[in-house]
């Protein structure tokens, strides 16, 4: 598990290898990740959007931007957390992701970024 705190928002990420499958005559590697966003501040915050950098050892970096996370824009009260799980398909058994969340502080309407630390994907059979 990797963790990082930005402006009082703690991000914790764990990953898992979900398996392989063929799609369009190519092998794909499926990875899952679970992220917990913990509000360690004195003010409610809302996650409004996300930015991802996806690194695949066989491909160029892929950049994804979108609203919320898994269709939600969670409001996280002080001392609370929001956990969600998602996944990533890679063309190789090794890769990584990092990025940031765009957040709003409800106390002062300030918009700010919370950085998601780099988390790695590695199929168990690809490591000696």
TrEMBL record:
<protein>
    <submittedName>
        <fullName>Co2+/Mg2+ efflux protein ApaG</fullName>
    </submittedName>
</protein>
<dbReference type="Pfam" id="PF04379">
    <property type="entry name" value="DUF525"/>
</dbReference>
<feature type="domain" description="ApaG">
    <location>
        <begin position="3"/>
        <end position="128"/>
    </location>
</feature>
<dbReference type="InterPro" id="IPR036767">
    <property type="entry name" value="ApaG_sf"/>
</dbReference>
<dbReference type="GO" id="GO:0070987">
    <property type="term" value="P:error-free translesion synthesis"/>
</dbReference>
<dbReference type="InterPro" id="IPR007474">
    <property type="entry name" value="ApaG_domain"/>
</dbReference>
């Amino acid at each position: 598990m990797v963790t990082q705190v930005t402006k009082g928002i703690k991000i914790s990420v764990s990953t898992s290898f979900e398996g392989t499958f063929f799609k369009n005559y190519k092998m794909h590697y499926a990875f899952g990740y679970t992220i917990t966003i913990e509000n360690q501040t004195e003010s409610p915050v809302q996650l409004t959007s996300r930015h991802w950098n996806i690194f695949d050892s066989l491909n160029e970096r892929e950049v994804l931007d979108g609203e919320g996370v898994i269709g939600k824009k969670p409001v996280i009260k002080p001392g609370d957390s929001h956990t969600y799980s998602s996944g990533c398909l890679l063309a190789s058994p090794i890769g990584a992701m990092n990025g940031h969340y765009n957040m709003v502080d409800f106390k002062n309407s300030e918009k700010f970024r919370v950085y998601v630390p780099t988390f790695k994907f590695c199929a168990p059979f690809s490591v000696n």
